[in-house]
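Sat 14:20. Reprocessing the chain from the morning session after the first attempt stalled halfway. Input below, unchanged.
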Amino acid sequence: MTEEKLTWKFSREFWTANGVELLERAAYYGMFICITLYLTNLVGFTDIQAGWIAGTFASLLYFMPTFSGAWADSLGFRRALVMAFALLTIGYSLLGFFQTKPTTIMALAVIMLGGSFIKSIITGTVAKCSDAANRARAFSIFYQMVNIGAFTGKMLAKPLRTQLGLEYINLASACYCLLALVIVFFLYRNIDTHGMGKNFKETWDGFIKVLKNFRFMALIVIVGGFWAIQHQLYASMPKYILRTVGQNASPEWYANVNPFVVVLLVIPITQLMRKVKPMTSIGIAMLIIPLSALTMSLSPILQKIYGNSMPLIGKIFIHPITLVFIIGIAIQAIAECFLSPRFLEYASKQAPPGETGLYMGYSHINSFFGNLLGFGISGYLLNAWCPDPKTLPPAIFDAWQKAQAGQGAMPSVYAHAHYIWYVFAGIGLAAFLAFLLFSWITGAIDKKRGVID
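Finished this time. Tokens:
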């Protein structure tokens, strides 16, 4: 038997797939970091409507790949990729050129459909273009491309928003996807997918089977509380920052603290926790996540001491709200490092023999619940404590504008804006307590059955 050698050399299809993955992630995260701003500021949806629309979009985008993956298998990867990037180019272009409510809903539906193909096709290509010995290396390249794309998309979103306008972020995303479409058309050859994927009936039967696993689904719902807080990077944070700090603030760049810390710490933390049970690592993450939201609520204390400009290093000054958010987002990232790798491990252990892939495929449903909850309530919280300035009476709006220019105090309507983060800290605490109860019940059941983790 010939021993397979370690290598960093992969096929053209592998590198093509990873290159277009980078472009797709840049397009998605550039758009998504400003999605609620776009829906409210340009299209005219209220904060509450924007929250539910963005939450539904993001939730279905996590849910649909399971089923669109079966369609991709029947179409063939090359044809499915061409169709996906064509749909994404059309969807982002619609968002860029038209800011009406009907076209926006249609555009998001088109992006959702196109985007649902990408993950299954790219990960399928990575798996098919690597052997067992080099699969870990292949997926490490894939995850790096995901992070580079997400980081780049959010970095470019700030200058596009401030110098050109929100619609140009979507036009840029359309350009990224058009470039990806051209690359796929000329460089990506179809690969043999025989033996990969399932048909629609098998996919649906698998979904029902996972739903019937009460233990697995209970943990997924509980961990959804974690992602409800994490997704505030996109649901509440951009509006909160721009309305309280100023229109020239950089929520897009603050959000990039998360992938930066994850890339830096995920391997050391996973290595540190390798000898403990997955549930222990998940529990640490569930304990940390409400602390991140609580940290984000602390700006009034610092503002009482320093005002709106506090010394950071030497002659460098920073707004207290900016500081607590950077720290809070870093704490979120640390929590994610404890959670994500070990949650996937736990999911794999819940699978009956021969069904590991099925359970791993449905492990992302926690983000489905997290997006619905997090985005859904974000609009109500913003409306109550950090409202859209355009909805304020003229006198209060004028006072807000002066405060943004540093010519007065913020109107009292924003005095309790930080209460938003108390609510999410409470959601995180409730999720942690639910996790403890879940651990106690399942531990007692396993002990009775003589099961050893």
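The domain at 11-193 is CATH 1.20.1250.20 (Growth Hormone; Chain: A;).
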